[in-house]
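Weekly structure sync, notes
Attendees: PL (lead), two postdocs, one rotation student
Agenda item 3: pending single-chain targets
PL asked that the sequence for the first pending target be pasted directly into the notes so everyone works from the same version. It is reproduced below exactly as submitted, 305 residues in total.
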Amino acid sequence: MQNNNLSTEKITIISIGRHTRLGDALEYALEGVPFETMEAGDLAAGDWTNRRLLFAASADPRGENAALLALAVRLRAGECDLSGCICAMIADGEQGGAIHLDAIRLLLAANSAGAEIISCPLLESGRDLHHLATETGGKETGFACYRALARALTLRLRECDNTAPIRRSIRLSSALDAGTKNDWCGVIRRMVAGCEIEISEDDAETDDTILLCENNDSLPDSRTLALLGGSGRIQFLIASPGTGGDLYTAVLFERACLRGEYSLVPGGITLLEGKSAVEALASKGELELVKASLNHSRKESSWEQ
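Predicted structure, written out during the meeting:
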């Protein structure tokens, strides 16, 4: 990934919707930070690679944002290349509504377009401001807490190092049985040259994690979710013999990257539809898909020896 000069790196704000409260929060969050603002409709034009993108979305009075969903569809369709980008998001919904789920859709679409998604975006609705104020014991208003979190996220986006340190090991984490994990570990070792692949169920902080899991019931089981208490960069390898692979993926992403402290590497989700983890090992086509995904993400995230 391109080595940008962090001292001069500016943030590109992708504005989605009409802002009132979010505009005030952003004014505080961006003080002293170089930035430019673009409308969501302008995202397809020009070169958008190697940038720091902040999606800023405000829901309408019904708690919806049609432009946000339209942008997600365009990114999924490949209309914009976000390779080398680092992305964060602030979503503001005074009435609650679907803004949280819509934000997940957009962030996953940006990831599929080549962007790394940093952890803990600020996805908030009006009723959440009361909780923010409560957490400070009433010493700050909800809005003061909200704009402070927006400031912290903005600075974290600007300071995020997109030239990752040298990596000699990647943790393979899975709640699947030991035999399946060992078989996959051997395959991934051959696919990703120059890195040592280690099996671990420890959720401590690590540089890089591959989560191997299997969707059978549309929702991750408790053992799989329990593996997401760490931090660092993460990539999901999801065998999906059952239906509901998209829902399964969204729940994993929400737990690991929205409520958790993982960043999702570029193109960080590989969904093997219609195959169990064991069946995928016997499928040349599925293994080629896994190999391409692992090496693409490794290149974009500087997973190099």
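Discussion points:
- The radius of gyration is 19 Å.
- The first helix runs from residue 21 to 29.
Action: rotation student to compare against the earlier draft before next sync.
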